[in-house]
């Protein structure tokens, strides 16, 4: 899933990315992976992830090579493994979400809070650099 979509109206790939993104989202939700919301503000992104049943100690957030990774572990009590379930919809195990963010974030200023099963990240944006224009000499 790309956090930062392409800007060109004539670029065909955003349509493909959007479709792939929707398929990945459907698959992620069906596999019990955390659902996320991302809001863009002028100077930052706000990310919220639902992680019910996860303890703070079982949560890991990393930013490596332009990929923000949210990893959580949720486990049931050992006695549930001995039960005969009629239906089991609550997932357990390791859940991972990888979000491509590129080099547009100030990694050292990311702020994370986890309360009542909701992870909230403040992802400050890097100030855009002014475009450099080089004059080409004509001979």
TrEMBL record:
Q: Which Pfam families match?
A: HSP20
Q: Where in this chain does the record put each SHSP domain? A: 27-139
Concerning InterPro entries, the annotation shows:
A-crystallin/Hsp20_dom, HSP20-like_chaperone, Small_HSP
Q: Which family does it belong to?
A: Belongs to the small heat shock protein (HSP20) family.
Its recorded name reads Hsp20/alpha crystallin family protein
